[in-house]
Amino acid sequence: MAKGLLTAQEVRRLSKVDGVHRVGPALYLRVRGSSALWTWRYTDTGKAHEYSMGAFGDLTLADAVAKVSDLRARVKRGEELPAFNSRRRNETAVPTKRIESFRDVAEALCESLRAGWKGVNGGKHGDDWINSLRTYAFPVFDDKPVGDVSTDDVLAALNPIWRTKTETATRVRQRIEAVLSAAKARGLRTGENPAAWRGHLDTLLPMISKRRRVEHHPAMPRADLPAFMAELQRRSNMSAWALQFTILTACRTGEVIGAQWSEIDLARDLWVIPASRMKAHVEHRVPLSRQALALLGTMPRTDGNDAVFWGARKPTISNMAMLQLLRGMRPGLTVHGFRSSFRDWAAENTTFPAEVVEMALAHTVQNQVEAAYRRGDLLDKRRELMQAWADYLECFHQSTASSRNTSG
């Protein structure tokens, strides 16, 4: 017996029970009252379809399995599938019916929600939203009709990452739940949401504390940073320039790729990022070191485009451009990890107060009392900090030059 295929006796029993029953791989029995139809579910050009093959009484289980094999071969050859005609019940021909897969609904929902995710960071959030499902949910659900996604499917997607990437898994669960809720609202599924946490998955998955949910981005050891910056400076392309600026300013990817020349105040050596592009929705002033200003002074500009880091075919470079460059230079690291390197350097190599470092990273103050008393943004102290950081990153050049002078 083929793997996952029911027996003829089991199928006969199901033929009397209303519903859609999975008989074998891609083979279903759709029962409603006295009508029972064999159906085959398949994907073509990335879309899910359901094809009615005939009445249950006209085909044996073996016939249905053989017909699925024949139909699959026809689709592969690009042939049009014939509609069936029942000899016994004189059923009218039922054409191929398009059904919505989980992927269909997820992508449509993401596009619908993008309107509320404004700005460059919003665009990145939308990409992260759908990419997390593409990475962890789509491969498991495998274009399954959204109405058939079950608790077992959700667990199959979450279990591999629940303990090791809990924060990511939590977001994936929330997004799966949102997709299935949207499907129910559109009449594409019924019943309870199998991705719901309270009263459902909370009884099947262990609760992970918020402290353990924090995922540390792989970061470069701070001792390796000067040599890496020297290597990066030998590259003359937009991705390399953007990554240098990201490291020098300790800013986030979205903040850098959305940088506009109108935000740069060269007279005050300052980059002012508007609240609309900040994670905490608060304006952030970034003091620019001599090295950051020198980099900006070499940057090429394009007419009619205010973006500092522009793309060949888009106004700004892709939010993956720096990561792809980094993967080629240091596989396994992340762009966000340089913020961790900056924080480690500040803690281990300097005496700057922690609040100055946190302000440089544009982190939200969690302590409400401290937040109430903190009126300024410590700009002068942060200017000293960022210049010390840039000087540290440049020390590779100084040490190698000194070495050459000594050897000479």
The parts where pLDDT drops under 50 for at least 5 residues are 85-97, 367-373, 399-408
**Helix coverage percent of residues?**
40-55%
For the largest sheet, list the strands in their spatial order: 1-2-3-4-5
Under CATH, the homologous superfamily of the largest domain reads Intergrase catalytic core
Q: Determine the structural class based on helices, strands and strand pairing.
A: alpha+beta
Q: Biggest sheet, in brief?
A: 5 strands, antiparallel
By CATH, the topology of the largest domain is hpI Integrase, Chain A
The CATH class label of the largest domain is: Mainly Alpha
Count of individual helical segments:
18
- Let me know the average pLDDT: 81
Number of folding domains?
A: 3
Q: How do the helices and strands follow one another from N- to C-terminus?
A: HEEEEHEHHHHHHHHHEEEHHHHHHH
| Named CATH architecture of the largest domain | Orthogonal Bundle
In whole angstroms, how far apart are the ends? 81 Å
| Shape, principal axes of CA atoms | elongated
Q: How many E-type strands? A: 8
Strand content: 5-15%
What's the Cα radius of gyration? 29 Å
